[in-house]
Design brief:
Number of strands: 0
Oligomer: single chain
CATH topology of the largest domain: 434 Repressor (Amino-terminal Domain)
CATH superfamily of the largest domain: lambda repressor-like DNA-binding domains
Largest sheet: none
Number of domains: 2
CATH architecture of the largest domain: Orthogonal Bundle
Number of helices: 7
Distance between the termini: 22 Å
Length: 115
């Protein structure tokens, strides 16, 4: 759960282990161990990881695979609200968000087709 999310987030943000380690103040081997599940970060490091990737601790630690549908819907609504607030604060129009989402969907499909 945490290990998969950390690895996925690092790849999504196109960061190297050394960049993550410098940002959160631990060694590269510590980041590698977090991502492999050999070691778990403490609370302070978890906060730094969440801030680095712009996610919540809840997202990092929660196992969404076994949640009831109602809870999955709440998580989705919460994520949507965060995106909309960030967009509003950044002056991004809803139409621009739609265009960005369409782009991301196309990119994801291309990536899935390649793999």
């Amino acid at each position: 759960m945490l290990k998969e999310k950390m690895s996925k987030l690092r790849k999504q943000h196109q960061l190297k282990l050394r960049e993550v380690s410098a940002a959160i103040g631990v060694s590269q081997s510590a980041v590698s161990m977090y991502e492999s599940g050999e070691r778990r970060p403490d609370y302070e490091i978890l906060m730094k990881i969440a801030n680095l990737y712009g996610v919540t601790l809840d997202y990092l630690l929660r196992d969404e695979t076994n949640l009831p549908e109602e809870d999955k819907a709440k998580l989705l609504n919460s994520a949507y609200a965060r995106v909309m607030l960030k967009a509003k604060d950044s002056g991004i129009a809803p139409h621009d968000l739609d265009m960005a989402l369409d782009f991301l969907i196309r990119a994801k499909r291309r990536d899935d087709d390649v793999n």
